[in-house]
TrEMBL record:
Assembly and binders: Monomer. Binds 30S ribosomal subunits, but not 50S ribosomal subunits or 70S ribosomes.
Organism for this UniProt entry: Candidatus Doudnabacteria bacterium CG10_big_fil_rev_8_21_14_0_10_41_10
GO CC list: cytosol
Gene3D superfamilies (UniProt xref): 3.30.300.20
Protein name: Ribosome-binding factor A
Role noted for this protein: One of several proteins that assist in the late maturation steps of the functional core of the 30S ribosomal subunit. Associates with free 30S ribosomal subunits (but not with 30S subunits that are part of 70S ribosomes or polysomes). Required for efficient processing of 16S rRNA. May interact with the 5'-terminal helix region of 16S rRNA.
Oxidoreductase keyword on record: no
Subcellular location: Cytoplasm
Cytoplasm among keywords: yes
């Protein structure tokens, strides 16, 4: 049983998160969106408890993340439409793209640790 006030997602949320992560990745790969020249990876998805909204974190390699974010925001309606087509859910969450800075943060921590080790 879940504790009151717990931030852990429900089993349903976890399933929807996983479905959205996989499906959005497939859509981006197949979509050939004009302007995306680098590799884009969907790193994580978090859906709201009512399953109506979702944040989709992505990383990009060999392309500026801000540039990719602008393209994804421009193409969000096409991506959303593809989600509706490939889903049996009654409500497909609205997606909001967010740049995932965790890799940059991990790189900074690694550099600091190596510097401390070398000293």
């Amino acid at each position: 049983m879940k504790k009151k006030g717990s931030q852990e997602p429900s089993r349903r949320q976890q399933k929807v998160n996983s479905f959205l992560q996989q499906r959005i990745s497939e859509i981006i790969i197949a979509g050939n969106f004009f302007g995306i020249t680098g590799l884009v990876t969907i790193s994580r998805v978090e859906v709201s408890p009512d399953l109506r909204e979702s944040n989709v974190w992505f990383t990009s390699f060999n392309q500026d993340p801000e540039e990719v974010l602008a393209i994804l925001k421009k193409e969000v309606f096409e991506i959303q439409g593809e989600l509706y087509k490939g889903s049996t859910m009654r409500i497909v969450p609205r997606i909001h793209f967010v740049i995932d800075h965790s890799l940059e943060y991990n790189d900074q921590i690694t550099k600091v640790l190596r510097k401390v080790k070398d000293e």
